[in-house]
Every structure is written in C-alpha cells, then in structure tokens.
Amino acid sequence: MNKINSIRKDWSLIETLIAEDRKILDIGCGDGGLMEQLENNRNAITHGIELNRDLAANAIARGFNVVHGNAELDLSQYSNNSFDYVILSQTLQAMMKPKDILSELLRIGSKAIVSFPNFGHWKIRLQLLISGKMPVTESLPYTWYDTPNIHFFTIKDFLNLCNEMNIVIEKSIGLTSKGKQFDISESVTGVNFFTHEAIFLLSYKNFEPIKIKSSKKVFAKNSVIAN
Amino acid sequence: MKTRFTTDTKLESEIAYFENINLKLESGDIIDSFKLAFKTYGKLNADKTNAILVCHALTGDQYVAGNNPITGREGWWSRMVGPNKPIDTNKFFVICSNVLGGCAGSTGPKELQNGSDVAYGGNFPSVTIKDMVKAQSLLIESLNIEKLFSVIGGSMGAMQALQWAIDFPDKILNIIHIAGALKHSAQNIAFHEVGRQAIMSDPIWKNGKYFENNEVPERGLSVARMIAHITYLSENAMHRKFGRKLQSRDIISFGFDADFQVESYLRYQGKSFVERFDANSYLYLTRAMDYFDHDETFRKNIEFSHNPNNHLKYLIVSFTSDWLFPTIESKMIVNQLNSLSREVSFLEIDTDKGHDSFLLEEPQLDDVIKGFLTNNFAKIDE
Fold it and tell me: Which residues in chain A have their CB less than 8 angstroms from residue B88's CB?
C-alpha cells in the first residue's frame, strides 16, 4: 500500500467507528479530507486542528472549521466532553508527550479514535535484526535523522499504556501490510507481529460524573475511578 | 423608524439621515439626529441573503472599492472587493459606511451640530466601537436587510466585527476578523496618546476649534500619522523597503533634512494624511479604539447571548509580523470560542508586512476570505 491509499483506508475504517450526527474534532486534519468524508457520510459536525499553515489555509478556504495551531499546546482550550469523538490519525508517534495527548483526547471527547503504524510489525523487526539499522518502511518512510516520528511503539506497548491509564479499548482494528483487515482483540497470537497499522476506539473506564454544588453554579467534573 | 436617503454628488456617496432618533451612546450622551455616509457594491438578491458589511479601520472610509473622490485614488480595499475579487460583488451585496465620528460624510466632529451652523469640534460626544456598530445596525435595518451574511473588518474594523457578534449575533451569520484583539493593549493606547498629544499641542488645534479660522493643525496631525504609520509596518518590511538608503542625495547632510528615504516617506505619509483627515475625528476615533475592551466580558457575552443561532461562524486571521495586534491577541479570541465549542477558524499568515498586511498583497488572505465566504454561502444557499 502506498501512503495515500493507506490514509484513505485508515479514514474509511475510522468512518465505520463513528455514529451518525456526532460532533468530531480531527487533530492534524490536513486540508479537511477526513472532515469532508465524515460530514458527507455521517452528517457529522466537524472541527479540526492543523499545524501546517498551508494545509490549514486550504481547509479553511474549503469551508471547514479549522484552527491553525499545535495540538500539543492548544488542546487545553477545549472544554471537557465538548466532542463526541476526537480523532488522532497517524500522529501519536510524532507527539512530544503521547501520554498527555492521549489523556487530553479523552478529556475533550467522550471517545477517542487513535490510529498508528505498528513498530512491532515483522518487517520492521526483521530490518533491524538483519541490517542493524533503523527500519524504513512504507508506513514509516523516513530516515532516523529527519523523521517526524519521535516516539516509536508497538501494539503491545499501546495496550499496556491504555491499561495503565484505565482506558477501555472499545474496538480495535488491525491491518496487514497487504491491507487485510482483522479484529485485534480476537486474534491474540501474532497480532503484534502481523499488524502493519492499528486503529483503536477508546473511552474511559468507570466513567462517573461527580457533581460539585456551589451556591452559584453547578460544576460537572468527569473523573476516572481507578479499579 | 423613518430614514431619509439622499445622494451626495460631491462625495459620490449615499447618505442616510436618522432624524429625531435619540441615539443613546455608551457614554450616556444622546445624539438626537445623525447621518451615515455609505457606499454599496453589487446587487442585493431577492431573498436578501447576500449582504456583507465591510467595516473600515481607523483612517478608512466608505470608499472600500472604486474611486475615492476625497483622495482621487482607488478605494482602500479595492484589491479585495469587486467583481471576481475575493469579496466578489458579482455574488455579494457589499455595504461600507463611514463610522459615527468619522470625517467622510457621517456625523462627526467636522459636521455641523444639529440645528446650528457651527461644527461640533470638541463638543462632539465621545463615541465607542459599540456606538458605531449600533449606528451601522440602524443603517442595515433601514436598508430592509434582516440578516447580514457576513461582517468583515481589519484592525478597528475587526473590533466592529467582533462587536457585531456580541451585540447582534442574531442579525449575522459569520464574521471575518483580521488583525484585531479583544482589547486595545496598553502599548497601543500609549501610541495613540502620543498621536493625540501631537495634535493637541499644535497651537492651531485650539481645543478643537481650529475650523473657526479655517485652519488645520497640520503639524500635529501629520506627526500623529507618522507615529501611527511606524506601528503599521515591521522592522523587516521597513528594512526591505528603505534600509539606510538616502533620499535624493549621495552623502548625508549633517543637518535635519530628510536625509533618509524612510524619513522622506514618513513626511509624505503625514502630509498627505492632513489633506484627507480631520484632526478632531482622529482624536475621537483613536479614543474609541482605546476604550474597546472585551477581555473580561467576551466569554460571558458569547456564552449567554440571547442568540438562537449558535452556528455563528468566526474566521480569525492574524499576521506573524503584526506587533500592534500580535497573533497572541487573536488566539485569545480563538481560545474563548473553542472553549465554548463555537465554530471558529483561525489562521496566522506568515508575512513581514506588519499590521498593514490586511490591506496589502497577501495571496493566502485572499484565498481564505474567498473560500470561507463562497463555501459558507453555498451552505445557506442549498
């Protein structure tokens, strides 16, 4: 699969995870391609953030609500639970603080959709094993010194992090390098070996609103009850 | 409300008279009658859905496009407004009015006081951005337009656009807010104060009564313009344009002539400004900008506004080299709107042209304005 096809495939899988008429924030929305798709096919209300000035300008000129900005600095301005879904497609590995981003996604959105290339894929393991050099593949096509991808991780790493953060994996889809699709949770053995790209639908565990009453205003705070 | 319309052939402008209307200003003062000079471009469609109000900046006027009879030059935003331009008058009906307190035909310090043959001068009541917008809203009403598709402005025009969103959210569908802020900063007030002091310390100013002897405080007003003009540029743009190049000479004069091109340019800016702008208006309008402050109140105003239409769209644009209204000020507006989940778009355009960028050649500004208007208009037109 080339890069464009792989993104299209990614988007169509993301679309399957999203219900009709929902409010969506797309982080790293580019020129609004996924937003357009979700508005057309899911009747979604979409917002986007894009770091690249020209892409943001294109998206705005195409009529989308897009803020030119840096997700790692600008997510704090969004209120708790202000979106039904927050999407982070193929960018978690490029974030300075992936763990903070992940918790921000689930603060802003009721659900988060995260997709990423699996560094545990056999081709990558083989390249490193045989050549002894940092792997360069279709989904991770950069040399080590100019890659925007600064935090490599595997499906196993991601599952561990979700567990540690009390994040529930509602759905998970894996793709092989040939584009074959499967359910990650059902195919236990070899998943981390064969999954080329992974897409996760996430939410918080034991999601329980705590209401704090004051004389003036009722504040609602969503908090996680750890098990 | 009955509004009388006339055409002023000398000003090549429409004039709307609001008589015995008792417009209450933010200061508490009341103007019983006033007039607004305005221009329109393009045609209002049958459903009246294609009207756009363009708000001018501090020293702008109603001549947004076409010929400006006062200066004899093209309108101040003719590169942006016109047939097939980003704000396309083949498609949209564009209205631009001279602000209340201005000096291009609307009621302001230069005009005669109601029922007298003496100009207001320093007796003109203090006006604010809110007052200007209130007057504009009466004009829009008298043109029988229920809802504006868009309100667009840069700098002081952006302040007016934001004020429209706060005061009349149900009468507009979107705003394009360029190089503005929630408040006029201390630094900006400081620059305005220096400009005002320059005017007021000109002996010809005479507490604003210079018109009695048919005089103009030229020196003071031109110095005010020179100071302000520096703040509209950036160091890089000034360096690119002038550097240390000498004006009409090969060697420095060891005197106080305009040795450098940048001096000559500023002197020219000051001199030509005096020919087209009223000193008292400059005092009043800079003050109106100084008083603009929604820093504490904006969020509440937007959150609790009686606006049945929460789909009001905002396009906020800033420029990297604008140090008068820096990007951080625009981002404060964006942050507030995002925290309320409003439909906001924001772009910081990379340019070295400073605050004045919105008036100059900036292809990305053209693209986003054109696209934003066209696509959002297509959505309501469906």
Answer: none
